[in-house]
Design a protein that fits this description.
single chain; about 425 residues; alpha/beta; Rossmann fold; 6-stranded parallel beta sheet; 16 helices; 14 strands; globular
């Protein structure tokens, strides 16, 4: 099968790009011809199809970036292309003319590529799958999070994003986002998508309730890991806590990810002379991250260390240094890579009881859950871990590994994905 894979980035950046390169590798190894389509950035990985990638309007533009340094003319060009990007349309058409694909798999397109890509795919009668790694289609912030808590008001009316200035706290940017969303809604762009792929059951259930997608076909296919131990032979870490309980956080250091909740929980325990160490992996160049670092420094919390950003190829080597990983999110995560990576190493996960995490972690089986946005609850869960023995920890570790082998197996992912591809291709041709 000849498949175009579309993503507005073709370089390593985060979870969506990890999946991008993993799925390209998986499909290629299964004998399919994979044709990437993206925007031409200097950071991009090499591809023989790069000549079909079009240049961005400006190199550094991202819709949620601070736009103070962008000229007025460029702002107008950005807004215009966000509604309908002519470069994306013509470049993708040129690619299609030269490769004659069987189907397209769209991962992330956003305002950089715009929904013009679905117009050209539809025009050429190419079946389309769209994978939703976030909630961009129904939330201006992508994460159902606003003013310190979960917000789902855009499900009933996207105009709420204007009322609450959800894009960079700007009325103008929020109005522009709303106009783009309404433009796409009026055009019924979602009807040009033959199937939606979602990584978690939580997202499947949520999207199924949204009026805009009542005619859409939605399939639940969990994210896969291509680094799972097939023999289930990983040896759990020694659960001797004489040198303390070792915890890690891996991901985006941001308010919605609840890193401050985790820091507060560890401080509660340290104040009680409970020996806990925490390493935080993730870029710390945001204002939020800098505030957390300053807070840790001012409180002299030497047991908490910010380790910085780690490239995806090195992440799997991190987990076996720790007893547990922690995902303290305040927001609705879709299906965090950090959860899959941790379980793939046999490291149980402590997660907040919210969104998909509430379904992915079974309390006392592959990890533990605490009340969302509650550092005292998290501290209580962590404290209870000191009463585990090696056998109980071994069970947790083995269960985490068995869980990820069952739910995130690469062959299962492939079989489910190809089944959907074959289904939409058949329906398109008959």
């Amino acid at each position: 099968m000849k498949i175009i894979i579309i993503h507005y980035r073709f370089y390593e950046s985060g979870g969506p790009e990890t999946y991008l390169f993993n799925v390209i590798k998986m499909l290629s190894e299964k004998g399919h011809e994979i044709i990437p389509f993206s925007i031409d950035y200097p950071e991009n990985k090499h591809s023989k199809y790069s000549k079909y990638f079009h240049k961005p309007i400006i190199k550094s533009f991202h819709y949620n970036d601070n736009q103070n340094n962008i000229s007025f003319i460029n702002k107008l060009r950005i807004v215009r292309s966000s509604f309908f990007n002519k470069k994306s349309y013509s470049s993708l058409q040129n690619l299609i003319d030269n490769v004659n694909p069987d189907a397209a798999y769209v991962l992330q397109y956003g305002v950089k590529l715009s929904t013009s890509i679905f117009d050209v795919l539809s025009k050429n009668q190419i079946p389309v799958l769209l994978r939703l790694s976030d909630f961009n289609l129904i939330c201006a912030k992508n994460i159902f999070y606003r003013d310190g808590g979960v917000c789902t008001k855009c499900i009933t009316s996207k105009y709420n994003s204007v009322l609450h200035r959800c894009v960079n706290d700007s009325f103008l940017q929020s109005t522009t986002y709303f106009a783009i969303q309404k433009f796409n809604e009026i055009r019924h762009f979602e009807r040009k998508i033959n199937a939606f792929i979602v990584p978690s059951l939580f997202t499947y259930e949520l999207l199924s309730k949204v009026k805009q997608f009542k005619h859409s076909k939605i399939f639940h296919i969990p994210t896969f890991s291509n680094k799972i131990s097939k023999e289930n032979s990983l040896k759990p870490p020694n659960y001797n806590l004489k040198n303390g309980l070792k915890l890690c956080f891996v991901g985006r250091v941001a308010e919605d990810k609840g890193v401050d909740i985790l820091i507060d929980a560890v401080k509660i325990l340290l104040d009680k002379n409970i020996n806990v160490t925490l390493d935080i992996y993730g870029a710390y160049n945001s204002n939020y991250a800098k505030i957390q670092m300053q807070n840790v420094q001012s409180l002299n919390l030497k047991s908490i260390i910010f380790k910085g950003y780690v490239k995806s190829k090195s992440i799997m080597e991190i987990y076996n240094k720790y007893h547990f990983s922690v995902i303290p999110s305040r927001c609705y995560d879709n299906m965090p890579n950090s959860l899959i990576e941790s379980c793939s190493n046999g490291i149980p996960v402590i997660a907040s009881k919210i969104g998909s995490l509430d379904k992915l972690i079974e309390d006392g089986f592959n990890g533990y859950k605490f009340e969302s946005d509650n550092s005292a609850s998290l501290a209580s869960v962590i404290k209870s871990l000191f009463y585990l023995n090696q056998n109980k920890y071994n069970n947790l570790s083995n269960n985490a590994l068995n869980w990820v082998n069952k739910h995130c197996d690469i062959n299962s992912h492939y079989d489910k994905l190809i089944t959907v591809f074959n289904k939409v291709i058949y329906e398109k041709n008959n």
